[in-house]
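Hello forum,

I keep getting stuck at the same step: I have a sequence, I want structure tokens, and every attempt I make locally crashes halfway through. Rather than fight my setup again tonight, could one of you with a working pipeline run this one for me? It's a single chain of 248 residues.
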Amino acid sequence: MKLALHGYGATGQYVVELAPQSVVAIVDRTKSSDTIASYAELTEMSETVDAIIDFSHPSLLPDLLAYGLATKTPLVIATTGFSEAELASIKDAAKEIPIFQSYNMSYGIAMVQQLLKTLIPLAGAYDIELLEKHHNQKVDAPSGTAELLLQTIQTARDVTPVYDRSQTRQKRETNEIGMHAMRGGTIFGEHEVLFAGVDELIEIKHTALSKKVFASGAIKAAEALIQKTAGLYTLETLYTQEDSHVTH
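Reply #2:
Ran it on my machine without issues. Output:
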């Protein structure tokens, strides 16, 4: 498998560390490698690759999609912080090429999603709160993974996210789900879903101990994606036997 890495930050560097024989090109406007062919723009890349792993920035999405569509190259999009319009453009591109897009590359998060789908129908009387913690350099809040977990919860229960209760002087509504973000230090990523019932609590928690887990997940996603037909894949659909059509 030949990979191009779009974005050569900390997680991208772990991709190279974990798959040194697979990454044949790096595309980054500010960083380069001494041992791997490096380019500032995708259009400058001369290598033919089986897939592109993207750990870059939302502003570079148009270039990434344009290159993927022009060359029919599968895309693993691990960048976070997309707008609704940008997510729509990813969905449109997936009509022509295989795209895997997730706010979290960890297989553990996929397991959490499955646990939530099983638990929520059994927990109708429980209030749900979602807490995420990240390092002090993270810009977006709440995290993309928190929003991903929210979407999973909303498929099983009608809940309305509440991002700030500081201006509200009223009791919690039963259909609310509080979304809480904490920033500090070098926390890689921690997500907790709390089910609060009468005199008892249930907590589902996922903690990333290193960014390597995201790099490893992206590599595995690329391996699976190159076997797929056009479509938009998620952690829940990528590893199924049947090909996916365009989905959320």
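The CA atoms of residues 32 and 38 lie 5 Å apart. If your local run keeps crashing, start a new thread with the error log.
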